[in-house]
Amino acid sequence: MSGPKTEHYVPQFILRQFLADQGKEQVSVYDKHEDRGFVTSIKNVMAENRFHDFLFEDWIVSFEPIASKIEDWCLPTYQRVIETRRLEGSPQETADLAFLIAFQMLRTKAARARFQDIEAMMKDKIKAMGHRMEDIPGWEPQTEDTIKRDNLMAIRETLPDYAHIIALKDFRLAEAAPGRSFYLGDNPVCLHNARTFGPYGNLGLAVPGIEIYLPLSSSLMLCAWCPSIMEEIRGSYNESKQKITTQLLGHLMAGRISAATMKTEMDSMRESWKPITAFIDAATLGMPIPSDIENMDFYNSLQTANSFRYVVCQQSDFDLARRHNKEFPHLRKGRKITFG
Predict the structure, then answer these.
(1) Crossing angle for the helix pair 91-106 and 64-84, nearest 10 degrees?
(2) Does the pLDDT value for residue 3 go beyond 60?
(3) I want to staple 54 with a disulfide (CB 3.0 to 4.6 A). Which of 124, 148, 290, 314 is the partner?
(4) What is the pTM of this model?
(5) pLDDT band with cut points at 50, 70 and 90 for residue 340
(6) Could you tell me the sign of the dihedral formed by the alpha carbons of 133, 135, 137, 140, in that order?
């Protein structure tokens, strides 16, 4: 090891889409731990010295070449989506984007912190039972190297399965509301589910209703949704349209309204349906779905809550992040694993 070597866990090609200063390649950052903002080069954020290297016996093992190859594999598809702002829906595109999401989900600082969280919770459980972890045969305390090794081994073992599950989702694009920018957290793959499943949780990759979000740029978000979500949206729209049309036709045939009145009512309903039809059309064509202020606050709150420490915003607007950090202090180091 010939000296410091900065290795990113969020790729620089994504960070470049959030630059506050193009010439200097700098981003505006909010630090959740210290509740402060600052500006720095993309070389200095969402990265650590030799993040992908660990000591194994007498060897220095590096995951960096593999990480770089995975990034290079996904990069052409990522760049095309950024440039065209459209999903073509091809199998190759789906595979590339699913792999990008899965790899980004597994490779972060937050992912490594979960190994420490699990050991800490196991210690508490064992202690509550009147025992010690030190008395368990084969147990060894974690070190920085063993945590790196375990995380990188987990990536190797689970990445193909994660990518396969994600590839089965419906891929959509969302664009930022006018005057707003998407946040990018240091743990940027965020999961959400509007459905509840009792004590078993609702944030698994294969859980019905799951929504997965990854910001691609300050103005473009990649969404991977459970197929049931669009099925419900289309079904609800078609059912509502069919019901109203049938009612109006019944009134017309019964002589309660005229043909002109029916046409006026149908035109009015089409106008009120425009937002949902535009949403469905955009999703079908692979075009970005527009966002409003409420959507933006939702997306950016997910990034803030999910991040381990840092959040980037092209516009340096961290009011929402600061409020969220103050209101939910237990999320200042991201979401924790909990045992029932």
Answers:
(1) 130
(2) no
(3) 148
(4) 0.89
(5) very low
(6) positive
